[in-house]
Input
Amino acid sequence: MSSLIQSALSDFETKNKRLVGRLTNLLDTICASDALHGLFLNTLSMMEHIGSRKIMVTQGRTDMDQPTLKHLADETRHAFFMKRHAETATKRTLAYGSGDVLAHAAARMYFQRLELAMRQSLSGPSAAVYLYMSMIVEFRATWGYGIFQAALKRAGRNLPLKSLLAEEEQHLEDMARRLDRVGALSRDYIDAFTSQETRGFERLLSALEQDSRVAAADSAPREALLSYGTA
Ligand SMILES: [Fe+2]
Ligand SMILES: [Fe+2]
Output
């Protein structure tokens, strides 16, 4: 990995330290319930699917090179993997509507806002938007899936994320290499886009915390504890 990316990643980690506790609490609440766990996996499935659709629409109509096809296949497989495990957890089929997805509007907006910000900054062909979008989202994916992996382990849930996480890390490196090759890799852009992405992720995190299904599960054990304490 290039030193530019290494230092950008470590900056990202530092800037996001304050969010680790919040995400950990959220994921512990989610992992404690089969129903929420299933809905959350379906939410991740939808986001992986949006990611794979974004790859499609940012490519020219008639051409797609081998690395892009591989990336598209990986993201589609991630969406399938999450959907399969989601439906195993809920024991029913799940759709990508608000009934089966947590923080539905915020999850969709996460991509829209980021793409819009990038289109405003990057003039020229949408290939650069595809590369930057993918790279910045991979910063979040590798960070978030790592925290999710630890929460799953604490909850005793068996969801093998190892190879998925390795693929996301590989995507990050591929995007950085391809941006570098076309002379478009810039630390200023990375900093601007990761700041933008972090604001979007915070909005998504708040929306997940405030989703009525999550909030109900989060308050239930505390209320039980409270009434136990006063009994
Ligand atoms: Fe993915
Ligand atoms: Fe990826």
